[in-house]
Amino acid sequence: MISISHKAKQFSVFSIKLLIVIGAFYFIYDKLAHDESLNWEKFWNVAQHKFTFSVISVLLFMSFLNRFLEILKWKNLVSFIKIISTSEATKQVLAALAAGIFTPNGIGEYAGKALYFDKGQTKTIVFLNLICNGIQMILTILFGTIGLFFLGYTFYAIVIIGICFLLFGISFLTKSIKVKGYSIEKLISKINEIPKTIHRKNNLLAIGRYIVFSHQYYFLFLVFDVDLPYATLMATIAVVYFLASSLPSFQFLDFAVKGSVATFFFGKLDVSEWIVVFIATLMWFLNVVIPVVIGCFYVLKYKPRWNS
């Protein structure tokens, strides 16, 4: 009976892993092959002239650096409970990314990473992942708000600042109130338990990742001969990234969400719609599709911790 139970578990895990991998590849293919907003003939004509070996090398290096900084962030945060190698952190981050491709805003990544640790550490891993993503979101809001001010959307920037202050005020007044045993006061206490050196390194890596990602976006506009001042382009990228990240979406729809938001803002700067759509698609391909494909390899290699 024990043997049958073990075999059943093995089959279930194999089925789930296979569904994740097949599903990931299907959604990637479906979006690239059937999206009517993508004029592939026009893109290939431009790509033959624009995408030289040097350009492709720079784009791939920036994608690698973007994801590598995320891996270092995770390795640094996990050191709070356990020292892991860079290769182990890579496996956890990429496998979790592949597992979370079907979930809203990548929520599945939380469960994906937790599977690599003992069950007793699940809450801690989810909490650390929240901090990992939280600092990135804070930077996105900060730079996005600055971008709104720079582009002249002062009213909206002030509204966002007002909302942030309102939420902060509510949090302060209700910090002791517990909901199912949890409170903001307890959350702050948990955050303070993590050494400041880990927090500082996490913040620096998050800033580095934001700089790399936004400048990869900027570099693609240069490749497509978009002639706008550096500050204007970067401010618009910051606003687009902020607003798109604030909208509920799935990883496999990431380019569609960012593409629609980008089309609106860059359209006001007279940037051709097809250029904006293709750049959003390329950013999605470079920073989501490639890591997910690699992550699928780690998903297939995953071995459950039966005794955890």
Question: Could you describe the 3D structure shown?
Answer:
This protein is 77% helix and 0% strand. It is mainly α. The protein has one domain.
What is the gist of this entry?
The protein is mainly alpha-helical and 308 residues long. The chain has twelve helices and no strands.
Topology:
Layout: H1 2-34, H2 40-50, H3 53-78, H4 86-99, H5 108-114, H6 122-150, H7 154-173, H8 184-193, H9 196-223, H10 230-246, H11 254-267, H12 273-301
Helix pairs in contact: 1-12, 3-4, 3-6, 3-9, 4-5, 4-12, 5-6, 6-7, 6-9, 6-10, 9-10, 9-12, 10-11, 11-12
Which characteristics define this entry?
about 300 residues, 12 helices, mainly alpha
**Distinct helical segment count:** 12
Structural class call reads mainly alpha
Reported for the largest beta sheet, the result is: none
Number of strands: 0
State the distance separating the first and last CA atoms: 20 Å
Pick out the low-confidence regions.
none
Mean pLDDT: 80
* Computed CA radius of gyration, to the nearest angstrom: 21 Å
Element-level helix/strand string: HHHHHHHHHHHH
Q: What coarse outline follows from CA principal-axis ratios?
A: globular
Give the strand content: under 5%
How many discrete structural domains? 1
Estimated helix fraction: over 70%
